[in-house]
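Example 621, ligand adenosine monophosphate.
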Amino acid sequence: MAKIGINLSTGSLQKQEMIVGIDLGTTNSLIAIIHPESKKPVVLKEHDGTALVPSVIHFADSDGVIVGDKAKDFLVSDPSQTIFSAKRLMGKSYNDLYNHAKLFTYKIIDDGTESLVKVQVGERFYSPIELSSFILRELKSRAEHILKTPVNKAVITVPAYFNDSQRQATRDAGKLAGLDVLRIVNEPTAASLAYGLGMNREETKMVAVYDLGGGTFDISLLRISGGIFEVLSTNGDTYLGGDDFDRVIVDHWLALLGITSTKLNTSELQSFRLMAETAKKQLSTTDEFTGEIGIQRITLRREDLDKLLQPLVEKTIASCANAMLDAGLEVGEIDEVIMVGGSTRVPVVMEAVAKFFNRPVNDNLNPDEVVALGAAIQADILAGNNKDFLLLDITPLSLGIETMGGLMDVLVPRNSKIPSSASRQYTTQKDGQGSMRISVFQGERDLVKDNRRLAEFNLTGIPGMLAGFPKVEISFLINADGILVVKARELRSGVEQSVEVKPQYGLSDKDVEGMLTDSFSHAKQDMQVRALVEAQTEAKILLDTTENFLAKNKKLLTELEFSETDSAMTNLENLLQKGGKDEIQTAIEKLNDISRPYAERLMDQAIGAAMKGKNIGAKNQ
Ligand code: AMP
């Protein structure tokens, strides 16, 4: 029975299934939904108006776990039990992080290996997946609290450069937090969606997404065409962001004051850092900042800040140039530039980006929210609420069924747009065959044994008919959620069976990639195997029909005809086991050549017998 929830804050009825969009960020995370009434994407806010949840986890001694703003307070007072930037650890080994190990104030286990990293807190060990799941669990419960309805399904965003294991780790973190992760979406794709790009299917647009957050910088170049988002190139610096801006401001002040940072204790240094961040933010809208630390009066002017930040901004622009080079694009080909991340509010950043791309940037939306908003739009599309815009996804691998000889017969080729449907007719191979086994496979190889078996079922109750008579229609339907329904129906009798599968279930992007690479590297060999299997199948069918024919008509054949047929059949049977495609084909032709004359003769006799004494009524005879 479907359950209906009531939103206590708006009094409106809500459907039970709410799919949220989650921006799981390095520094901050947030959730957005499509507002049930306005149908516009909105971020979820607490009563006090906060939407950003700092991606910080504090493990209290009492076994308790605190996430968000409250956990952030422990960054200074209890650094070894307080985890930040867990996203940087996703899918990484200690060796990957070695160069940056100093940045983490908590303990990362140094096992000197390539195996996935773990974090030690007191006596306990946590994987980055578990750490991220704490953040996601907090986001889920916040959303449930605000929406007053269970939240079990989500779309989560990741950087475009995330590899398969990092994407899988994010998916697993969602699962651990009790979320069914319907889709992992690239952050630049989500940002583009939030700006309405890709909504017009007729249009092809080249988009640059410049994302400068607190600790990371990414530039992604996308081609959006026919509702499909293709990442052409990515570049950036995973250790460059607003925190570095704050650091250069602090260094500037300390130099002016003649203080060396080593002389300051952690809390003094922290005060300078916080003051620097305040100054930076204020100077995004004013020309001058004045503050006090203790008895020290501190100032900073916009033009000084611009000069201080120049080298860092130039670094990001160099990344943009590299990304353009990798994508083989000229600046003139970029249609839109989208700004993401809190640090893009800094005027000198915005100016430099606009100058490099030689066009005004898109900055109407809150740069902290834009990714979450886009994730909500994607969630809405997956929920099937946005019928105009269902072309977003494509099947990564072909879907088909097993036919004779273990061959893969593709019904939905890879890269088909979802939702999608296809059907094809098949028939039985044996007289009186009452059932048919339908095996559904996914993959690019010609033989099903090299592909992935998704499901198998029997279509039973086919009424007894001669081989080749039943018409079994197999149809594949992939709905917007990526669920595949396979139906088999014998058209003459109406018997029907169906099965539902999730083609993507348990299949990582890496698996998909592996399957594709395999299909490329085996393409030639696969083609040869397919040709051989097809010849073998043809031979088996011919042997079967000839045998049936002989059983019924042996008496009507001459001795020579029979012995020639018999030896041609034995020859073909032997070749079936060990012959090549051409040998089998030649043997098939030989058997056909022997049987054709007597088959025709017997056919003529049969027709003659049927005609005897009958007036066929031709007028001119
Ligand atoms: P994000 O990781 O996208 O949440 O970005 C956070 C970064 O944006 C931090 O370094 C903030 O200091 C910075 N930021 C937020 N608001 C502003 C602003 N008004 N001006 C400059 N930087 C800002």
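Summary: The mean pLDDT is 87.
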